[in-house]
Amino acid sequence: MILLMMTRHKVVSACASLLVMACCVSASATLDETYRVSKELLGKTWDVFSDLHQQEPVSGEPVPGSLRRRSATAYILGREAASEEQYRAAEQFWAEAVQLDPFNRAAWEELGDLMVQTRRHRSAVKAWSNALADPSVANTELLLKCGLMELMLGQHVDAAGHLMRSRMLQEDPMPASRDVLIQDSALIRALRELGNVELADSLEKERTSLLEELSSSGLDDLESGREWMTLVEELFALGDLETARDASKMLLMGQTPRGEHAGYMAANLKMRFVLLAALTGGGGDEVIELIYSLQERDLLRGMPPDWHKPIELAEAMYEAGADFATLNNRKGAARLFSEALAHDPAHVLARNNLGYSSLEDGPITPEIIEMIEAVEVDARRLGASLPEVLDTVGWLRYMQNRLEDDDRGAGALSLLAESITLQEEGDPIVLDHLGDAAWKAGRPEEAARAWSAAHARLADPTFRGQQMRNFNLLQGGLWQFRVVDSASMYDREYGSLLEKVADKLAAIREGRPPAVAIRRPFSD
Q1: pLDDT at 53 (0 to 100)
Q2: Is residue 300 packed enough to be buried (19+ CB in 10 Å), middle (13-18) or exposed (0-12)?
Q3: Which of 116, 171, 218, 363 has CA atoms 20 to 30 A from the CA of 125?
């Protein structure tokens, strides 16, 4: 197969950005034996869809032999051009081939593959549909990739039709395979969009069975590990986050990777599970379970780039908590930070992050206050993460209304100012905190300067560019699995802040009191 013959993975990856990241609900029951959807239920549903999914046949009279031969020649010339990376010429040859012979299915398929490469997705579907116009065509690979593309484009009736045809062509009894698992996930999504609950429910049960069967095959070599990681990525791209999450964990919990690349496979699958657990609203306990299991088998590693080095339990819990926080799962992050502290009560960043989370969400307990104050002492002594810690302590003082220095120690203003001086360039979040503290302390000019500095940073394209590069590095370099658009990560972190500081500055100009942060409640 030449370069342009798209595999299932390339079709899914080429259009992943078109998907709405909606989670399909996966069956949760553990099956004692394999399960397959009955032929009777499939047939009943197919009878319905065969009426809805009327494939328009390629029109025209039978093609004379001379034209078929010319079409075959154009098809071969297109393949030769494509093999030499002359894609424009290849497209012209294949277009000529189908014009000469509209029944040249191979040319239609190649033309569709090329259109996917050049992001003409709807044109690709039309070309593939022409290749599949004859109901007797039994090309399950083409049916699958056409159905996947139609699903991504929101063409649910056509997607269900092609995916059902592919499913009906599977042998009986149907063996477990990655292709069938992907096909089931896609078909479930299309059927639910169309309101066919009965078959969708049965396919979910089948999907769970397939996943358990496939995961029992083990991780004996690097190739099998990479194939499983690819399966996780494909499920994610389809929007089936829960099955992707379960696939990441199931293999690691049920099997022990072996060989020289065992650490590599464990680190990558753990990373995928952590991220998917965060995205699907996990509370952190399932991640903790997996981390303990890996540690017991000497397979606990850090992020994928550090797969060859073991990692301590506390650091593994902290890293997972930081990933949850990055993906805005604050409840799960707090649970993981707490677990990190159970193994290393002196962990500076775990204490800092857990404390800051309490300041943001409340309530603020005496234990939280004690922890934040203790982490400042340790951060100063160790010189570790001091700017971040000083911002947290300064924000605590703001919540306590301790704005100025007094005989109890430094107040919010001096702590936040110190945090900024330790940074290469002032972080907009800390500058906003400083502005709020200055306003509450009756220093409107200082507040305006801090908010103006924050606004200037946020409005500077260089700042946005640097933060976007950081988010891209995080996903591409450290996680090695892209789960969120970096622009959306930036907007969640800084987008609302730009609007807030702009409103505060406008309020000062108009003589109105700016809307500074509300103090969170304290509890005994």
Answers
A1: 58
A2: buried
A3: 171
b/e map of 265-284 (b: 16 or more CB within 10 Å)?
bbbbbbbbbbbbbbbbebeb
Question: 406 forms bridges with which residues in the sheet?
Answer: 409
Per-residue exposure over 186-205, b if at least 16 CB sit within 10 Å of its own CB, e if not:
bbbbbbbbbebeebbbbbbb
Q: Which helix (H) or strand (E) holds 203?
A: helix 197-215
Long-range interactions of 120-128: CB distance < 8 A, separation 24+? 121/14, 121/15, 121/18, 121/149, 121/152, 121/153, 122/153, 124/149, 125/149, 125/150, 125/153, 125/155, 125/158, 127/98
Q: Which amino acid is at 402?
A: R
What is the CA 365 to chain-centroid distance, rounded?
Answer: 34
Q: Are 397 and 355 in contact (CB under 8 A)?
A: no
Distance CA 248, CA 8 (A): 20
Q: How far apart (Å, rounded) are the C-alpha atoms in residues 513 and 51?
A: 65
What gap in Å lies between CA 433 and CA 501, rounded to an integer?
Answer: 10
Query: What per-residue confidence (pLDDT) applies to 403?
Result: 97
Q: How far apart, in whole angstroms, are the C-alpha atoms of residue 513 and residue 125?
A: 57
Give CA–CA dist 63/87, Å, rounded. 27
Cα–Cα distance for residue pair 141/7, rounded to 1 Å: 8
Q: At what angle do helices 105-117 and 121-131 cross, to 10 degrees?
A: 170
The Cα 54–Cα 216 span in angstroms is 40
Average pLDDT over residues 379-388: 93
Residue 319 CA to residue 301 CA, distance in Å, equals: 11
With contact defined as beta carbons under 8 Å apart, do 344 and 321 qualify? no
Give me the helices (H) in 344-427, please.
348-361, 366-382, 386-399, 412-421
On whether the CB atoms of residues 265 and 257 are closer than 8 A, the answer is yes
The single-letter code of the amino acid at 442 is G
- Rounded to 5°, the CA angle 240-241-242 comes to 95
How many beta carbons lie within 10 A of that of residue 467, not counting itself? 17
Q: Please say whether the beta carbons of 453 and 423 come within 8 A.
A: no
Report the mean per-residue pLDDT for the chain.
89
For residue 194 the two structure tokens come to 């169309």
Residue 446 CB-density burial (10 A; 0-12 exposed, 13-18 middle, 19+ buried): middle
Return d(Cα 112, Cα 108) in angstroms, integer.
6
Planar angle of CA 151, 156, 161, nearest 5 degrees: 95
Task: In whole angstroms, give the CA distance from residue 383 to residue 253.
Answer: 39
Indicate the pTM of the whole model: 0.85
Looking at the chain, the whole-number percentage of residues with pLDDT higher than 90 is 77
CA 520/CA 524 separation, integer angstroms: 13
- The dihedral sign for the CA sequence 304, 305, 309, 311: negative
CA–CA distance, 375 with 356 (Å, rounded to integer): 11
CA 158: distance to chain centroid? 27
- pLDDT score at 56: 59
